[in-house]
Design a protein that fits this description.
This protein is mostly beta strands. Helices cover about 0% and strands about 50% of the residues. The chain contains no helices and 11 strands. Strands 2, 4, 5, 6, 9, 10 and 11 form a 7-stranded mixed beta sheet that branches. It starts with a strand and ends with a strand.
């Protein structure tokens, strides 16, 4: 069992930056792939980024590539999402998720554990 707690969300102006953190408790965190997803009001949840257990393999949605960076610190059981050059369309609740199969999948069904989410609002 893994518990995930996100933090770091907030209100930022267009072009600003935020860093989200996801603290994990439970065993075997360092063998899981970790992902970030987001959901805006009235829209379906969408993939943002993922990182496999080694930290070498990372994956990004096209809409955030070159602006967002996912990373992990296994010593701290924490995964991060650095978000730069934020745009109003990035406004959403952001969720981290853990995938025991280490697939780094774009599909939310691959992830067994989810946090409660943190809100990111980008003003224009």
């Amino acid at each position: 069992q893994v518990q995930l707690v996100e933090s770091g969300g907030g209100l930022v102006q267009t072009g600003g930056s935020l860093r989200l953190s996801c603290a994990a408790s439970g065993r075997a965190f360092n063998t899981y792939a970790m992902g970030w997803f987001r959901q805006a009001p009235g829209k379906e949840r969408e993939f943002v980024a993922a990182i496999r257990w080694s930290g070498v393999n990372t994956y990004y949605a096209r809409s955030v590539k070159a602006r967002f960076t996912i990373s992990r610190d296994d010593a701290k059981n924490t995964v991060y999402l650095q978000m730069n050059n934020l745009k109003p369309e990035d406004t959403a609740a952001y969720y981290c998720a853990a995938d025991p199969s280490n697939s780094g999948s774009y599909y939310d069904t691959a992830y067994d554990y989810w946090g409660q989410g943190t809100q990111v609002t980008v003003s224009s």
